[in-house]
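Hi everyone,

Forwarding the result from last night's run.
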Amino acid sequence: MVMKKFLNDPQRATNELLEGYALCFPDKVKLVSEKIVVRATPKAKDKVAVITLGGSGHEPALSGFVGEGMLDASVVGDIFAAPGAPKVLEALRMFKDNAGIVFLVLNHEGDQRNANMAMTMAEKEGIKVAKIVTAEDIAPGVDAPISERRGLGGCIPLLKIIGAAAEKGFSADEIVEIGERFNKRMATLAVTLKVATHPQSGGEIGELADDQMEIGMGQHGEGGGNGPEPMQSADWIAETMMNKVLRAIEAKSGEKILLLINGSGGTTLMEQFIIFRKAHEVATAAGVEVVESYCGEVLTVQEASGFQMIVGVYDDQTFELFNAPCDTPYWVTR
């Protein structure tokens, strides 16, 4: 299959994109050992380091959020594939002299397996690592076990909160408590209109007919539970999804929330704003106040058409941390 993408050797796509990324933002990040992205100016050792891992192909996630106030390091795997445990261990060793390490891992089989292997190896070397898992996808059902719930774009606002806590000097235990508190009141639901193609093989990831959509389809083409259905209007999609998400987080009248519409790579801002308009209306009708909002791309799947609706409930502390200063290539708060 011939792909219309700006590539050289598809097998070197990850290496080349990371080289270009580091060259584009030399004042904020640097690339070490080929696939570990770190802050250009390291955090003080008396503070906790926050790191993550994940496959490439989802830019700007996750390496786009390395920098002051968010991530200290991102360990990058090949396209849509988790990095190996030895590479993750290499990154953990870089921060063994910090006040601690908090490791954010999305709930995907490869990510979890390799993260756990690396943590076991690190523990044998006396490196203590605390892990937070994001599994906020509600497509399998609100009551589905964590093992069946995927980690999606909700990792980004969570990173913003725990990164700010680390920057302020909180301990690893305090950071995990803060992160889990927000994690438990956060939910994501995705919808896909057109599946992505794999940049290395050219093959489509999943199947959808031209007149179909699928609410709940995962970012790698995984099924959403109810299967494809006929295409609906933007208002119908936004209302249906927002009602499900609000029920999942048990949003109560008077509570303050984040509403983030994350484009999947092939969805225009025009469409995202139309979706946001209706989602905001649904939240307001439920008595919930949208105090932080965003439309754009924080975690993509190449040219997949669709979006992720990410909603989280704030308390006073998590709201303050979300608004704390940060300076990364793809998230800046002054």
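Residues 234 and 274 are 7 Å apart (CA to CA).

Cheers,
N.
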